[in-house]
Amino acid sequence: MSESASSTPAPRGRSGPLVGLRVIDAGNMIAGPLAATQLADFGADVIKVESRKRLDPMRMDRPLIGSENAIEQGSLHQSVNRNKRSVAIDISDPRGADLARRLAVRCDVFIENLSPGALEKYGLGYASLSADRPRLIYVSLGAVGREGPLSGIRAYAPVITALAGVDSLTGYPGERVLGLQHGLADPNASIHGLIAVLAALHERDRSGQGQMIDLSQLESLVSLIGGHLVAQQMGARIDRPIGDRDIWMAPHGVYPAEGDDAWVALACPSDESWCALRRLMGDPAWAAEDRYATREGRLADPGPIDEGIARWTATRDRWAISQEAQAAGILAAPLLDTADRFSDDHLQERGLYASVEHPVVGTEVIYGIPWRLSRTPGSIRHAAPLLGQHTREVLGEALGLDGAAVAELEDAGVLT
Q1: Domains of the chain by range and CATH?
Q2: What is the rounded CA–CA span in Å between residue 74 and residue 83?
Q3: Are 84 and 73 in contact (CB under 8 A)?
Q4: Catalytic residue among 98, 186, 214, 246
Q5: Which ranges of 114-222 does DSSP label H, i.e. alpha helix?
Q6: Does residue 186 have an active-site annotation?
Q7: What is the pLDDT of residues 156-211, one digit of tens each?
Q8: Residue from 203, 205, 223 nearest 213 by CA
Q9: What distance, in Å, lies between the first and last C-alpha atoms of the chain?
Q10: pTM
């Protein structure tokens, strides 16, 4: 099979700086699919290859409106797979694997985050696809990468945060390690993957060649604790939980506010901001001690500072504290519960949320586009697809299969 043209004209309604780019999303859960979503938001034609015989776990989330069509209702699925087209192909069937391969070599980018070797056995690895499509950019967002002593392990995000050392830093001083309570490794890897794809596309414009991107979720997550690693190399002992405190800023914490389970976050990155907080608190005597005049002094004994700030915040409204502190040049924000996140003026102004109409769940609120680009803005054009919703459309466009050929494959259980 020889290399063929990559892209067809953009489907109706598609716009953005990545129009003309065709992407295969062969991943599941978050890391791979979310990287593909960010390309779709800016105009790329992202085709999610999936199958009822091996459902993406995001489709098995708790149904929103009853058991009928349950696989179309997952709330996370709605956000992570918007703007995509879905093709149902059983790649465990040789005919399905051949279809997926023929589709892949007509694309610009191939993204997956499956276990090592999972796709190679179906002829969907980089070596096989790039032989027929040298311009292909193949992105593997594996747990620990494809090389090294751990390369064969299978791991979800909670395992990766533990391996990366992030869990060991999460907890309160003097208490047991709590670890993260969410899958930070997935969205973190997806953003690293997105940047890698954009860099590879830029290089392809220059050289005409694609490339293999082997991105380790573990290594990209370690980058988030770089400051701790450097400090450790310089002799500082910070390999243990420090709660809401920070290794550079003091004070830095979450403090009780007026009301039931109400909290406010405050941080002073400089001596000047600490002086501003002192004035805001009425310059209490405890805060005027000489030892607190410098950041080093405040870092050496943060306990009394936190206790003093907590006494001041406990009788005040979290929103009022935040506004007054921000006006004084102090880093501050109220902690938000679920209802607060949807009504917060700042988040609304930034367009954090968007509404889409889904044929099964109706109006659904999903997260918006995280990047604000003035000249090339992205857009959320449609809700997440139904499983296999675009199978006939895509196979007709990309491979020239007519209705009869598709129907035959459907009857044979290949397109399911």
Answers
A1: 22-215+373-411 (3.40.50.10540), 252-343 (3.30.1540.10)
A2: 16
A3: no
A4: 186
A5: 126-132, 157-164, 185-207, 217-222
A6: yes
A7: 888 999 999 999 889 998 899 998 888 899 999 999 999 999 999 999 999 999 99
A8: 203
A9: 26
A10: 0.89
